[in-house]
Design goal:
InterPro entries: PduO/GlcC-like, PduO/GlcC-like_sf, YBR137W-like. The chain has 170 residues and is an alpha+beta fold. Helix 1 runs antiparallel to helix 4 and helix 2 crosses helix 5. The mean pLDDT is 95. It has a single domain (12-169), classed as Haem-degrading domain (Beta-Lactamase, 2-Layer Sandwich). Strands 1-4-5-2-3 form a five-stranded mixed beta sheet. The chain has helices at residues 12-28, 36-52, 78-94, 98-107, 150-169, and strands at residues 30-31, 58-63, 66-72, 129-134, 138-146. 48% of the residues lie in helices and 18% in strands.
Length: 170
């Protein structure tokens, strides 16, 4: 799998379009169920995609404090694990993808990192963290990728979740 590095939005209109796309992805990627065996399957999908693309990434799926799946591919660094923890914490706290958390303020020309209440040491408003949601239940886990540009991290997670959903529907 190859990823074309997505260009970062630059205008309020582009940020608004990105936010709308992410919101659609959240609505689309609702699962029927999700437990530890599913975390393994999703994690292995992401490992395969990362390996095929020679991506220097770390992959993590967690339910609260419990890590259900974690892998570091060739080229991943210890810093990726720090970013994963911050992105996952953001998704857990705010209930939305970490890329959406950072994108929404940019529609108004602001950065969440400039807000005094946003703790950058604990949270990251950068792409790669995504809620794993079950229909009728809500968020039950967080899947996170770190190691690529933030939109590519996000897109890889979404591609993996889409593949997971497609496999489930067969």
């Amino acid at each position: 799998m190859t990823l074309m590095s997505a260009r970062e939005p630059a205008t309020p209109e582009e940020f608004a379009a990105l936010a709308a796309r992410i919101e659609d992805e959240v609505a689309e990627l609702q699962l029927d169920a999700f437990g530890p065996p599913d975390a393994l399957r999703l994690g292995l999908i992401l490992v395969r995609r990362g390996t095929e693309g020679s991506f220097p990434i770390a992959i993590d799926i967690r339910r609260g404090e419990q890590i259900l799946f974690h892998a570091a591919l060739e080229g991943a660094q210890a810093d990726n694990d720090v970013w994963i923890a911050r992105k996952a914490r953001s998704v857990e706290r705010y209930g939305i993808p970490s890329l959406l958390l950072g994108t929404r303020p940019k529609i108004a020309g602001k950065r969440i990192e400039n807000e005094g209440w946003f703790d950058q040491m604990s949270y990251a408003a950068h792409g790669g963290g995504f809620p794993v949601s079950v229909k009728g239940v809500g968020m039950v886990a967080v899947v996170t990728v770190s190691g690529l540009p933030q939109i590519d991290d996000h897109n890889l997670v979404v591609a993996g979740l889409r593949e997971f959903v497609e496999e489930e529907s067969r």
